């Protein structure tokens, strides 16, 4: 058996379900892989998945595309090999008293501490006519959603298929703002990333993606079985998981139905956005991602 260590970007949720299904249903084992999934609650998010990847403690990291860009621009090259979501499922979410991004000028933003995150948030505020940047605060990452619900902060960044569904079910009122509406061509989030110079061989990675695709196919074809599996890995009830899966479906695949593939144009547009704000220098887009393990 070949060992593959995967660092998740959050506590297990429906975004990770193709990986969880492939492990729990033995799809990885069938292709000779012993896959370990670790989540950040195990070390209180002391290090990001991308940081663990460049340090060599994991073989694959679930992370946003900006982590790939940030580490590569710092000469610690990592490469996206697949996307778990083909379309952006994230939004800026605020307390309901704020009706537009410009209302968030000077307000408390709960930041995850990502390299370009705060600049993107302030771009959205400015693009909507805001007068001043957000006041950035950094609660413990895994407590950010609770901090917003408790009104300890005014806004943050969430995923619609998870926190968005949780909010709707709990009748928590939020204002939400999509990045694309404020001229942010946001990249892929999350992706699976590797260290091209790491120990993970191309053959093992190809097998990993074949088994992961089987996990995704089971999710689509056998929804209740997928719900059963997810129930063993989180504290949410079955109806919450069903709603999350219904919500996430539209974000998982490209228009042509392909799973895991990425478009050069999307990477290029996001990098051009970051370059236009002097957040990155020149990068070779082709080095940042590859589709050869998902085709």
Automatic annotation (TrEMBL):
InterPro entries: NMT1/THI5 (IPR027939), SsuA/THI5 (IPR015168). GO terms for biological process: thiamine biosynthetic process; thiamine diphosphate biosynthetic process. GO terms for molecular function: metal ion binding; transferase activity. The keyword Lyase does not apply. The keyword Protease does not apply. Residues 13-226 form the SsuA/THI5-like domain. Pathway: Cofactor biosynthesis; thiamine diphosphate biosynthesis. It catalyses: N(6)-(pyridoxal phosphate)-L-lysyl-[4-amino-5-hydroxymethyl-2-methylpyrimidine phosphate synthase] + L-histidyl-[4-amino-5-hydroxymethyl-2-methylpyrimidine phosphate synthase] + 2 Fe(3+) + 4 H2O = L-lysyl-[4-amino-5-hydroxymethyl-2-methylpyrimidine phosphate synthase] + (2S)-2-amino-5-hydroxy-4-oxopentanoyl-[4-amino-5-hydroxymethyl-2-methylpyrimidine phosphate synthase] + 4-amino-2-methyl-5-(phosphooxymethyl)pyrimidine + 3-oxopropanoate + 2 Fe(2+) + 2 H(+). Keywords: Iron, Metal-binding, Pyridoxal phosphate, Thiamine biosynthesis, Transferase. Responsible for the formation of the pyrimidine heterocycle in the thiamine biosynthesis pathway. Catalyzes the formation of hydroxymethylpyrimidine phosphate (HMP-P) from histidine and pyridoxal phosphate (PLP). The protein uses PLP and the active site histidine to form HMP-P, generating an inactive enzyme. The enzyme can only undergo a single turnover, which suggests it is a suicide enzyme. Belongs to the NMT1/THI5 family. Homodimer. This is Thiamine pyrimidine synthase. It comes from Planoprotostelium fungivorum.
């Amino acid at each position: 058996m070949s060992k593959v260590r995967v660092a998740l970007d959050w506590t297990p949720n429906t975004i990770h379900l193709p990986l969880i299904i492939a492990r729990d249903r033995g799809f990885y084992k069938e292709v000779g892989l012993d896959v370990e999934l670790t989540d950040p609650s195990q070390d209180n998010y002391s290090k990001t998945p991308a940081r663990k990847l460049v340090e060599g403690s994991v073989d694959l990291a679930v992370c946003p595309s900006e982590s790939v860009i940030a580490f590569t621009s710092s000469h610690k090259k990592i490469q996206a090999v697949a996307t778990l979501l083909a379309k952006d499922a994230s939004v800026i979410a605020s307390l309901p008293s704020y009706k537009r991004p410009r209302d968030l000028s000077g307000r408390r933003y709960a930041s995850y501490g990502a390299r370009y995150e705060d600049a993107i948030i302030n771009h959205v505020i400015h693009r909507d006519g805001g007068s001043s940047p957000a006041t950035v605060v950094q609660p413990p990452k895994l407590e950010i959603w609770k901090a917003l619900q408790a009104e300890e902060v005014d806004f943050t960044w969430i995923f619609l298929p998870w926190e968005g569904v949780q909010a709707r079910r709990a009748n928590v009122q939020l204002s939400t703002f999509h990045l694309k509406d404020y001229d942010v061509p946001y990249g892929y989030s999350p992706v699976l990333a590797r260290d091209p110079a790491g120990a993970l061989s191309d053959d093992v990675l190809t097998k990993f993606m074949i088994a992961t695709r089987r996990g995704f196919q089971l999710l689509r074809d056998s929804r209740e079985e997928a719900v059963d599996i997810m129930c063993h890995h989180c504290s949410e009830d079955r109806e919450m998981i069903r709603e999350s899966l219904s919500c996430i479906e539209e974000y998982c695949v490209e228009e042509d139905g392909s799973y895991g593939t990425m478009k050069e144009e999307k990477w290029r547009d996001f990098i051009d956005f970051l370059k236009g704000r002097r957040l990155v220098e020149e990068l070779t887009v082709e080095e940042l991602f590859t589709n050869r393990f998902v085709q």
